[in-house]
Design brief:
259 residues; alpha/beta; Metallo-beta-lactamase, Chain A; 6-stranded mixed β-sheet; 14 strands; 35% helix; globular; binds zinc ion
Amino acid sequence: MLTVYSIPALESNYFWLLQPVPEKPDAYILDPGDAQPVLDCLRRHQLNLAGIIITHHHWDHTDGINDLLAQFPVSVYGPDSQRIPQVTHKLHGGDTLELPDLQLDVLAVPGHTLDHLAYLHTDSEPTKLFCGDSLFAGGCGRMFEGQPEQMLASLNKLAALPENTLIYCSHEYTLANLQFALKIEPDNKALTDRLQQTQQLRQQHLSTLPSTIALERRTNPFLRCHLPTVKAAAERHAGTLLTSDADVFGAIRRWKDQA
Ligand SMILES: [Zn+2]
């Protein structure tokens, strides 16, 4: 049974620490943007770092790698990207990452960056998705490097996962994302309910993660670009007709960037 520890760090990040077997101390850290919170979590739970897994090259996902390697000379699994020189095992979409007691399916999800990977754990129920800055609770990452068609295809790939899949993304952006989503779908009851629950959680400084694919499909506008209401809101804001789902996606991504 996979245990997932949440490590809140930096301004808004979560690093996820995965312990595949409760009786064994070996654990894998996903996207360590800073070493110290990871070391603290390992010590607190008497765990041993067995490997490092990376979704993409941004500093808040990678800056802790060197300090961790200084104490734990482990392998680093991640994208085939020159921008992450510490990666020892280069991965691509369609690969399976086989680690002792831990198997992860590797998904290519370009858009936020071109080298972005997501990792899917299907051996536990429900399935667990570690998706970095591609899909967020109530939103998605900024499109720094990709094109709308590409990023929407990545998000649609994730949206097609089983509805009860748990989503472990890398930032606590849920409240701001849902406040933006409400501008697009003010009459979406699932969205207004979620916003209220999220406000209560954040007032108590509690995490809003993990989310689920079902909840995202009901409330995340970036997964709802095919719906007439979302298209109409994007057209009103852009002041132009939008012909494809990718155009709608691009328009609401730009809208969010400027919000
Ligand atoms: Zn990023």
